[in-house]
Amino acid sequence: MELFSLKGKTAVVTGATGLIGRKHCEALAMAGANVVATDVNEQGVTALAAQLGEQHLGLAMDVTKKDSVSAALEQVLSRYRSVDILVNNAAINDMFEKPAMAKELSAFENYPLEALQLSMDVNITGVFLCSQVFGTKMAEKGSGSIINVASTYGMVGPDQSIYIDENGEQGFYKSAAYPITKGAVINFTRFLAAYWGNKGVRVNTLSPGGVENGQTAHFNKQYSAKTLLGRMANATDYQGALIFLASDASAYMTGANLVVDGGWTAI
């Protein structure tokens, strides 16, 4: 079990106050890492770090701004002297201010360019900048693990039928932005793995499926029917995979995409 230990390691998690981000932080802390929880929500990451324990740190950071990421790195190095693990978890998904307009605006024919740009800024530029800033330090010391969180929608197109409600109405469409950006994350992983392989930095993707989080019973049933395990994920279902990728248990693994989706993409 020592292979899975992260004792003495420092792990930076972006998007830490989200549902899955919190579980990533908890798992890393349980494995012994010093966890640096980062998010634009300063109050949220401060509270999260306090919950995890006094050895952990919460930092406000905007992944789309290099100055903000660089400032966070300096604080991490000041406290822990090194960074060993980076979990690029921060991402944005479509939110429409007027629910009544969701169907119209989410349709590809009408999808706003500014919405696509926002997704690209967070989901692609954010991963790029955090990898550049934190990963460079890993490469300089000759070791590290970067975990880029993608999605099943980075590999397959969305099945729009699961978004039809119990009345037979298409409530909204899963837009192009999420598949575009998450597909980019998967191939960016391969680039970094090849680029930094000789520097001892491993780079892998974790591609999760949908998580149960207050959706309607109808949607849950629709989604679950497409998985081989017959259910949506629990928020804790990705913790084991994350620790595997972060630790020496995956020491000979880089450039890979670890899919944890209940069998969604298997058929």
UniProtKB/TrEMBL annotation:
<dbReference type="Pfam" id="PF13561">
    <property type="entry name" value="adh_short_C2"/>
</dbReference>
<protein>
    <submittedName>
        <fullName>NAD(P)-dependent dehydrogenase (Short-subunit alcohol dehydrogenase family)</fullName>
    </submittedName>
</protein>
<dbReference type="InterPro" id="IPR036291">
    <property type="entry name" value="NAD(P)-bd_dom_sf"/>
</dbReference>
<dbReference type="InterPro" id="IPR020904">
    <property type="entry name" value="Sc_DH/Rdtase_CS"/>
</dbReference>
<dbReference type="GO" id="GO:0016616">
    <property type="term" value="F:oxidoreductase activity, acting on the CH-OH group of donors, NAD or NADP as acceptor"/>
</dbReference>
<dbReference type="InterPro" id="IPR002347">
    <property type="entry name" value="SDR_fam"/>
</dbReference>
<comment type="similarity">
    <text>Belongs to the short-chain dehydrogenases/reductases (SDR) family.</text>
</comment>
<keyword id="KW-0560">Oxidoreductase</keyword>
